[in-house]
Structures are given as structure tokens and as C-alpha cells.
């Protein structure tokens, strides 16, 4: 009898975490490594949020809380949805978890039965298909190549839906491509979804505040109110307020789904950290200056990276309008050999040769379901980015 469960046999460890660990290992050996693989802002959590956490400890907010969030935080989340997204939710329609990741996981675990399908546009965040597999469902990736700006078209959605489709996962701005859906694009997807009332929509809006060039953020339950009663809108404080380590995410949707997710959470992790919940409350209700400041920095870094990468032989890098990633194609390098003799057979070979030969850690496209490409997280200093781009240019220039 196998010791590990069949469910665990189906999933693989996160490629992004594996790449970050390998980069850390090489740095530990004394190599000069630039890691562009981690998906987190490189800023400190704003001071007023850190202070709120200290005050929460001193005020004795150190005990178990309501399983899916303290009432004050749920109220603040309702206010946030009303203020920023024009979405009206009651606290019974809101759940708070240990990161957006747990909220997404809870929803899939609470709803999927064997054979249920989940449509996932590719390139996708690495965790979606594996979470679906863990929950016993079947991921249905739909390739959305660079030529269509890495976005799902209404025709592709229509073709992917079957009687077994339970969820469509949308993620805009996207990790890994940075692609953002406009209001019109969401409307067009919404028209398809209105015709298939058995399909629910899980929208992962974690990068909401990182859109560039004045592009307004849009989310499907607001764009197509007819879908609100089968949409779970997921968000969190990790990326918006540089709070990745605090582990607070939230979701809003129909009360019956939210209740089921809370039941699951009550029998697994219970409440998210009490202190972090008070910190998240301060993030959502306090000054919002950090959001605009970080957005401006990320937009400048995006421009630096995109223009540098487009000067590298064999690389084509579109200009994304959100998040802090770029997702360049390396189609022009496949079949070549690096200066040190590695055959670039696919994007995994490219990423591994790039790390070994130049010390730059990126994540290969196959991990996100669409290659040949790679992902750079530009949530690091301008100096590191400039150095990394120069190393990538030298690497590509040496490929023949
Ligand atoms: C697309 C996407 N969704 C969700 C998450 C999870 O964020 P957290 O669990 O920190 O809230 C991440 C983190 O990298 C992400 O990139």
C-alpha cells in the first residue's frame, strides 16, 4: 500500500518556489546570483500597518477569532468592494483566509467532485492546476499565446465549456503574463458565461492595484452583474500592501459557498492569524498612498525591463499592463546552443543554462502552461534589473 495519498501523487511542487530555492542554494555557495523568480514586492510593509499589528498584540488580540475573519475586517472588506469595485456584499458573503491562496484552495476543495472540470487560461499561475488536482477535479488549460496578448477569447471559452465544467478561473492582472482584461473583453466573456449557467467564475484579483498606463482595473462581477451570484471574487493584501508574509486574503461570493468554505477552514487551519487580521484592517481602512507609490515604481521598472529584453537576440517581450511580471517569448532561441555548449531545446533548458552560465534566475514557461517563454518578476531594484538584463543580453548574444 502506498504511503502517500493518490491526491498528492497527482501534484508537483511549485516550480517558482523550486527556482527560488535553487537560486538561494547557489548564492549560499558564493555564486553571484540575481533572482528574478520570486513573486513578491521588494518593499517593506507600510509603517502604519506594522504599528497596527504591534497595537493588536498589546491590546490582547492574540486569541482564536471567528474562523473566517473578525467582523471589523469583514466590514472593511465589504466597504473596499463597494468603494473600489462598485460591488455590494454583506459580511455573510465574505470570507478571510490565510492568503488569497487558501481562499482559492478552500473554494476548489468545497466544490469539486471527481470529473468536474476547471477551465484555466494558460499561461496561468502555477498553483491553479495543482490545486484543482488536489481537490480531485480536472484542470482544462486553454492556451492563450502571445499573439492574443495572453488572453482568453470568447470563442476559446465557448469551445472549452462542457457539461462537466464547474469553474472558469480568471486572473487579471495576470501572473505570469501581466495581461489585463478590459471592461469590453470581460463583457464578451460574460456573454458566453451567461449562456452557460452551470459554470461558476473564480476571479483572482490579487494584482488589482498594479495596472499601468492609466488602464482601469475591471472585475467580472461588476462588469456583468448577471454573473455575480455565481462568481467568487478573490483578493488580498499581499501584493497591494507588500504584506506577503502576513498571510491575509479574502473572497466574496454567494453566502452558501462562503459558508461551505468556512466549514472547510474550521476543520483545517481555523482562523487566519489574529494579529495579521488587525494589520489587514489597518491596510484597508488607513492611508492608501503606498498603492500609488509602488504602482509608479513598478511601471518604471516594467519599462526598463521590456526595453532591455527587446534588445536581446531571439527574445520578444510584449509590454504588459499590470502585475510585476514580464513574459517574453524565446521562440527565436530554440534550437540554438549557448556559448558554454548547452542546447536550448526548450524553455526549461534555457532557464537552467541562464542560471548556470550567468547567475540570473527566472522561471521557465512550461511551469505556467505556455512556452517557449520565461517569467521575470521585476519586483527588485533597478540596479539588479539593469545588471540582469545585461547578463541576459550577453547570454542571448552568445547563442548560435
Ligand atoms: C495570481 C496569484 N494569486 C494568488 C496568489 C496568492 O497570494 P497570497 O496567498 O499571498 O494572498 C499569488 C501569489 O503569488 C498569485 O500570484
Automatic annotation (TrEMBL):
It catalyses: L-aspartate + 2-oxoglutarate = oxaloacetate + L-glutamate. It comes from the Bacteria. The keyword Transferase applies. Its cofactor is pyridoxal 5'-phosphate. The keyword Transferase applies. GO terms for biological process: amino acid metabolic process. It is an enzyme of class 2 (transferase). PROSITE patterns: AA_TRANSFER_CLASS_1. Its EC number is 2.6.1.-. Gene3D superfamilies: Aspartate Aminotransferase, domain 1, Type I PLP-dependent aspartate aminotransferase-like (Major domain). Keywords: Aminotransferase, Pyridoxal phosphate, Transferase. Residues 32-392 form the Aminotransferase class I/classII large domain. GO terms for molecular function: L-aspartate:2-oxoglutarate aminotransferase activity; pyridoxal phosphate binding. This is Aminotransferase. It comes from Paracoccus suum.
